[in-house]
């Protein structure tokens, strides 16, 4: 209103001056100058985020979001350590070991769309705050589970809470300028890799002396820290605008300008989101005609990513056990706890995620999202096929190192593409749906990596290779390449 009043004053002053000047025509230069006094004084969140650039605000958000990913990674990495430990402590079978992993992913699958709806209806910050508290609470309770059934129940609830973690990527991506978005989202995986390495190092120290229950308890410390800092997380400005709260969105953008040391854009914040409040966050909108092919292909790609990634994580400990025993056969009563060499090799293969991340950053901006994901799936399939070669432990570790780096970078490439291809009104729901479908693949993979692998390593690796090749074809079939494309606010239009 103040800006409008200022424009009116300028017009009045100009009008008074014209009354006192002869009616001679104004030169063209003066006319053009007077036209530029009143510009088109509107801007969108996308324009504001791009203009304010990457700065201290995004750095703080990177650390908060990264802590969430690090905590999630520790809860996921512990699955590969938990099963052999419970096999020794409670004498559970291979199928029960696989069930301890499957139950977590079942909880994640069932809750992913739930958290996506919460994020689109009540905000990303609200969903992540609830997630942090629940994840810490159930993670801590699982450390004192008295028996196997109680442990299954509590780990399932942990999985339910973990289903919200992908929404942190939604929040993070919505604050990133277009030019930096892909690099920053891929770099976020550094926190995941750091969490995985920290969990292996913690297991190396804790397991020989205190045991698996103390490992479960100590692994919740990052979750507690994240839950405590959630009140300071910013809410998405895109969500505020889409939900009819432009004042709150403007306040957030002004905070970005202040933190980044940039001047705030002049004018009025507008939204061209064509989806009403009552239609936001519904799963059925992902299957409208011009989004149907994209959604179906992405669901298969995400499912294959999770199937291959977690399969490789679980196979790593299984292959190291097999290599140490010199035989693939073992009865349910046999107990061989992971040794120091096993933890060190597991740590080395986990460290492979870092070069995989940096390679993905370089390739994804050069070749685009679709080609990068397709190429990584093919390379992963080749690496998995090489696991059938009966080499020494060093050869096995090297192949697992390369495969782990490739599949880690691939997962992050999918996290880059998905928020970019969907509009604001459906973005959190889309990420939640993709994450939920991915957990279906993760639920199946323990029975391949931990059960089928014991019967035939050739069949097990063949399953993973086939899934990777099919997913590569799906990547190339995606309708749109999002490289250099701004995040959309509207659902209408073609993809």
Automatic annotation (TrEMBL):
Keywords: Membrane, Transmembrane, Transmembrane helix, Transport. The lineage of its organism: Eukaryota, Metazoa, Ecdysozoa, Arthropoda, Hexapoda. PROSITE patterns: MFS. Residues 61-483 form the Major facilitator superfamily (MFS) profile domain. It is a multi-pass membrane protein. It is found in: Membrane. One of its GO terms (molecular function) is transmembrane transporter activity. It comes from Parnassius mnemosyne (clouded apollo). One of its GO terms (cellular component) is membrane. This is Major facilitator superfamily (MFS) profile domain-containing protein. Its main location: membrane. The chain crosses the membrane at residues 95-115, 127-146, 152-173, 185-206, 212-233, 296-315, 346-364, 395-417, 455-478. It comes from the Eukaryota.
């Amino acid at each position: 209103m103040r800006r409008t009043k200022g424009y009116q004053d300028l017009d009045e002053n100009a009008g008074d001056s014209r009354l006192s000047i002869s009616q001679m025509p104004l030169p063209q230069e003066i006319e053009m100058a007077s036209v530029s006094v009143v510009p088109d004084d509107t801007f969108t969140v996308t324009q504001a985020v791009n203009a304010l650039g990457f700065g201290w605000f995004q750095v703080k958000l990177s650390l908060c979001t990264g802590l969430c990913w690090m905590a999630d990674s520790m809860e996921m990495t512990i699955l590969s350590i938990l099963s052999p430990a419970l096999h020794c402590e409670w004498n559970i079978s291979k199928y029960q070991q696989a069930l301890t992993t499957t139950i977590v992913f079942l909880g994640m699958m069932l809750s992913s769309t739930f958290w996506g709806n919460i994020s689109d209806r009540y905000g990303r910050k609200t969903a992540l705050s609830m997630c942090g508290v629940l994840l810490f609470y159930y993670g801590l309770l699982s450390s004192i589970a008295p028996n196997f059934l109680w442990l299954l129940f509590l780990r399932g609830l942990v999985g339910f809470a973990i289903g919200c973690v992908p929404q942190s990527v939604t929040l993070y991506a919505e604050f990133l300028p277009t030019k930096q978005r892909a690099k920053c989202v891929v770099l976020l995986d550094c926190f995941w890799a750091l969490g995985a390495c920290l969990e292996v190092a913690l297991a190396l120290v804790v397991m020989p002396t205190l045991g698996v229950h103390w490992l479960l308890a100590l692994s919740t410390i990052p979750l507690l820290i994240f839950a405590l800092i959630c009140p300071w997380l910013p809410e998405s400005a895109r969500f505020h605008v889409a939900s009819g709260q432009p004042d709150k969105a403007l306040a957030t953008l002004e905070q970005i300008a202040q933190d980044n040391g940039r001047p705030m854009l002049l004018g009025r914040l507008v939204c061209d989101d064509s989806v009403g409040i009552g239609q936001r966050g519904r799963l059925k909108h992902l299957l409208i005609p011009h989004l149907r092919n994209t959604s179906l292909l992405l669901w298969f790609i995400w499912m294959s990513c999770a199937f291959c990634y977690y399969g490789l994580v679980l196979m790593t400990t299984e292959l190291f056990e097999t290599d140490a025993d010199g035989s693939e056969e073992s009865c349910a009563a046999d107990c061989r706890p992971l040794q120091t060499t096993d933890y060190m090799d597991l740590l080395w293969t986990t460290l492979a995620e870092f070069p995989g991340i940096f390679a993905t950053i370089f390739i994804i901006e050069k070749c685009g999202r679709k080609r990068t994901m397709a190429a990584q799936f093919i390379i992963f399939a080749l690496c998995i096929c090489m696991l059938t070669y009966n080499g020494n432990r060093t050869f096995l570790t090297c192949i697992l190192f390369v495969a782990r780096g490739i599949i880690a970078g691939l997962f992050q490439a999918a996290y880059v593409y998905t928020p970019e291809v969907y509009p604001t009104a459906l973005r959190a729901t889309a990420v939640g749906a993709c994450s939920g479908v991915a957990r279906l693949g993760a639920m199946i993979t323990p029975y391949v990596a931990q059960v089928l692998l014991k019967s035939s390593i050739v069949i097990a690796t063949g399953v993973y290779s086939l899934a990777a090749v099919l997913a590569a074809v799906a990547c190339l079939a995606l309708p749109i390449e999002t490289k250099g494309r701004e995040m959309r606010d509207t659902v209408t239009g073609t993809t």
